[in-house]
Specification:
The structure holds 2 protein chains of 2 kinds. By secondary structure, chain A is an alpha+beta fold. Chain A has helices at about 35-40, 150, 170, 265-280, 295-310, 310-315; strands at about 45, 50-55, 60-70, 70-85, 95-110, 125, 135, 140-145, 160-165, 180-195, 200-220, 220-230, 245-250, 255-265. In chain A, the strands form 2 sheets. An 8-stranded antiparallel beta barrel of chain A has the order 4-5-9-12-11-10-13-14. In chain A, a hairpin with a 6-residue loop joins strand 10 (about 180-195) and strand 11 (about 200-220). By secondary structure, chain B is mainly alpha-helical. Chain B is about 45% helix and about 5% strand. A two-stranded antiparallel ribbon of chain B has the order 1-2. Chain B has a two-stranded antiparallel ribbon with strand order 3-4. In chain B, strand 3 and strand 4 (about 325-330) form a beta hairpin. In chain B, about 40% of the residues are buried. Classes of the chains: A alpha+beta, B mainly alpha.
């Protein structure tokens, strides 16, 4: 599958494991499969709207299933770097405590001439000499957090996101350490360094975030994120930055203030990696897709099918 | 005797003028190429011949002007001009006139890809297109409140689509705000989905092309940048302020300040930039303030909208100074900013100059008097795009063949083109040698106003470019600058100075 050099691609982040994985890797490698093996690797995609099924020309059938993690959480450290309204306030250190779930999709054989393969993961072999890889490797892993309630309408996460600081003077201007019961962050912008499609160069840019992030104080010392209107350009939690995070909010005199934080997202990467590795062992639930998956899974599998149909020797076989 | 001479002079002037005006076939060709981007058809050429034979070529060309102005090709041409003006990636593919859902645009090398679609089928390009197609006011670029928001399947749900961009203001755009999957599946080249959206005329959150996903995404923002990059584009496009970063004055901290302005192709971290900015007082220095005093208040109008449009307007100011006046207009949001810009005389002058550049031969200068006259015409037609294009087409210069440039004119033009690059960065630089503390305009000869000054500046140029050693060890442009002199540019300037820095007429301005 040959994509143009500057053609369509999804924004990638350093947290690669939770972004989509391109199917193009190693695509031009394989040669030497028998015509029969190549022919029987062809399939039709059946979109059942609750999931995807692959009907192979030789009668084999595979269904897309998902392994879903328990609700996990991870604290992400944030350190203030700029505060336009209260520049004299103490340099606060905060944490965004992020609840999340991970969904790992896999194709599972539901009909196969070898009974031992039923219930097993479908693999693809790109080269006669290379090891088999799960067919779902190209589908990516889904990472769902608080804002996905907005995306999916489902209660995918029950635990609230927390925002905890050792000092809130940067936010409130208050010297006595007291914090208001409710506070609104008008805009939260999360930055990553990624390619700009227009200019073709990598640059720091705000790529996700939220509006009207409602903070509700708990025990007078920490906030929970009780609601917000989130936006995202990558399938990552909207309030997570691999670069700086910038918060815009109103001072008591209604002047708009801006505070910037550096955020360390490496803890999320480590934790997500652990969870994904565990999930890849199964078991895979019959409920098929992650709530956000179906369109993207279908598009990815369609690309794979097109590639197999057009040039099988470049995409390997599905034994 | 006197009257004979006068008649002879008039006659020769008439003959000269006649020689410079295009013949009908060339006029039709020129008209078609300028308005549609391609030559007229064979049938059109034949029809013109018949019209010429019958003595009605003027009526024929007038009818063709109407036809071309109403064509999709003209709308696309204006769209492409605006893309270039905004420095957007242009794929050279016309926006499908009726957005045929079964036939999305195709670009060479890209096919019918979604990125091609994104590059063309978006609210910004649609606005560019509609301005010409519907003869809208040019101000719509700044003050428009009506959008066609498109939903592109591969980018569906991503904040950088029109749907995601406008979703916080228009709850009906359901795929908004990072919805990845709860919309019906559409294949890669499937139906193009769009929604027409309108805002109140006084909505301070919305400002024509400025509040579109493509504009915001092209000129990405960070917390550190604070929308200054977007503000710089607005100054450049609408007020013709080039907004190049000024080279700092010689106070011994050039290196650090230059690092701030040209941060090594983004290899520096934000923390490093912040540290440097604090250490050197960037933002307070006169050189820096030459830009910051106007960028910062304008950037504030986009403060709440880093990637997508916020439901909360952000107040700011339109602030700038010209040699004649100071402008300082408080605004409630970017919507009011757009309207405020459209009221400024600098905006009118700037837009007229864009049109002049687009429709006239680049060798035809626009005099201040002509510019004033065209501004009055621009106002008279209610700033409507095609009406003003028609005025440009009716200018005598439009069909005039410019005399070929002389060798010295070509050379002077090339030297000025090079010096303009220097000028862009030095224009706001201060130094002690001038009464007003400003650097002279390198493209206005003699540089500095007289021959001794010109000589001084030529020597300086010679030194900083290290022309003696063919530019082997130059101090300018600085290593941090985003451009380098080519060898041919070095030779151009070196030889020009060696020959006495001749002007357009070939007259030496400096003793070699």
């Amino acid at each position: 599958m040959n994509l143009p050099e500057h053609g369509p691609r999804y924004p990638m982040t350093p947290i690669l494991l939770i972004a989509l994985v391109s199917l193009t890797s190693g695509a031009a490698a394989a040669q030497g499969f028998s015509p029969d093996d190549l022919a029987r690797s062809r399939f039709e995609i059946v979109n059942t709207r609750t999931g995807l099924r692959l009907d192979f020309v030789d009668g084999r059938v595979a269904q897309l299933h998902t392994a879903r993690s328990e609700e996990e959480f991870v604290p992400l450290k944030m350190a203030i770097t700029e505060n336009t309204c209260y520049p004299a306030s103490a340099p606060a250190r905060c944490s965004l405590i992020l609840p999340f779930r991970v969904y790992v999709p896999s194709f599972i054989w539901t009909r196969h001439p070898d009974p031992a393969r039923i219930g097993q993961v479908v693999h693809r072999k790109q080269n006669p000499d290379s090891p088999e890889q799960p067919l779902s490797n190209g589908l990516g892993t889904y990472f769902l957090s608080v804002e996905d309630r907005q995306r999916t309408g489902e209660e995918v996460i029950t635990r609230p996101m927390e925002f905890v600081c050792d000092d809130y003077a940067w936010l409130t201007g208050s010297a006595d350490g007291s914090i208001p019961r409710w506070f609104t962050i008008n805009t939260w912008g999360s930055e990553i360094n990624t390619i700009n499609f227009e200019s073709g160069i990598n640059e720091n840019q705000t790529f996700s975030g939220g509006f009207n992030i409602q903070l509700t104080a708990v025990f007078g010392r920490k906030y929970i994120v009780s609601s917000g209107l989130f936006f995202a350009s990558i399938p990552l939690p909207a309030l997570v930055s691999t670069g700086p995070a910038t918060l815009v909010y109103r001072r008591s005199d209604h002047e708009l203030c801006q505070s910037s934080f550096s955020m360390d997202a490496s803890a999320l990467e480590r934790k997500a990696q652990e969870v994904v590795v565990a999930l890849q062992k199964g078991p895979f639930e019959p409920r098929s897709l992650a709530p956000i998956g179906v369109d993207r899974e279908l598009e990815t599998v369609t690309r794979l099918k097109k590639a197999l149909d057009a040039s099988q020797s470049n995409e390997g076989v599905i034994p | 005797m006197k009257s004979i001479l006068l008649t002879a002079l008039l006659l020769s002037a008439t003959v000269a003028a006649a020689e410079t005006v295009m013949k009908p076939a060339a006029r039709l060709n020129h008209l078609s190429r300028v308005l549609r981007g391609h030559s007229p058809s064979t049938d059109e050429r034949r029809a013109l011949q018949s019209a010429v034979t019958e003595g009605r070529e003027e009526a024929f060309l007038a009818a063709k002007t109407d036809e071309y102005l109403a064509s999709e090709a003209h709308a696309f041409k204006m769209n492409a001009r605006l893309e270039e003006l905004f420095r957007l990636q242009t794929n050279g593919t016309p926006l499908s006139p009726v957005l045929d859902p079964t036939n999305p645009p195709e670009a060479p090398g890209y096919g019918k890809s979604n990125f091609t679609l994104y590059g063309h089928v978006n609210s910004m390009n649609h606005l560019f297109h509609e301005i010409a197609r519907k003869n809208l006011s040019w101000d719509t670029l700044l003050t428009g409140k009506h959008y066609r928001a498109f939903d592109i399947s591969a980018f569906r749900g991503f904040a950088l689509t029109d749907y995601g961009f406008l979703a916080a203001l228009v709850p009906d755009l359901k795929s908004a705000m990072g919805t990845y999957a709860d919309v019906p599946f559409a294949p890669e080249t499937g139906p193009i989905v769009y929604t027409d959206v309108s805002f109140a005329p006084n909505d301070p959150r919305v400002a024509g092309a400025l509040t579109t996903a493509r504009f915001f995404y092209r000129f990405a923002n960070t917390g550190l940048n604070k929308n200054r990059r977007r503000a710089a584009v607005i100054f450049r496009v609408f007020l013709c302020d080039s907004m190049s970063a000024a080279i700092p004055s010689s106070e011994g901290k050039e290196g650090a300040i230059l690092d701030l302005m040209f941060p090594h192709d983004n290899r520096m971290t934000e923390e490093q930039i912040r540290e440097m900015a604090q250490g050197d007082g960037h933002g307070q220095r006169p050189d820096c303030m030459a830009c910051h005093y106007k960028l910062d208040p304008m950037g504030r109008t986009m403060m709440t909208s880093p990637l997508t449009l916020s439901p909360l307007a952000s107040p700011g100011r339109l602030t700038y100074r010209t040699s004649a006046r100071s402008v300082d207009v408080p605004v409630r949001g970017i919507g009011e900013l757009g309207a405020a810009i459209a009221r400024q005389p600098e905006y009118l002058s700037c837009q007229v100059r864009h049109f002049w550049r687009w429709f006239m031969d680049e060798r035809v200068p626009l005099s201040p008097a002509r510019e004033d006259q065209l501004i009055r015409e621009f106002e008279r037609v209610g700033r409507r795009t095609n009406d003003f294009v028609r005025i440009m087409l009716n200018q005598p210069e439009f069909y005039r063949i410019s005399a070929p440039l002389t060798e010295s004119e070509i050379r002077a033009q090339r030297v000025k083109t090079f010096l303009r690059k220097c000028q862009d960065c030095h224009k706001d630089q201060f130094y002690d040698g001038n009464d007003d503390g400003k650097f002279p305009d390198f493209t206005s000869w003699p540089i500095g106003g007289d021959e001794p000054e010109m000589k001084r500046w030529v020597r300086r140029i010679q030194r900083v470019m290290d022309l003696e050693h063919d530019g082997e060890n130059p101090r300018m442009p600085p290593v941090e600058a985003p451009w380098r002199t080519t060898h041919s540019e070095v030779l151009l300037i070196k030889n020009w100075i060696r020959d006495g820095a001749p002007d357009e007429s070939g007259r030496k301005q400096v003793t070699p």
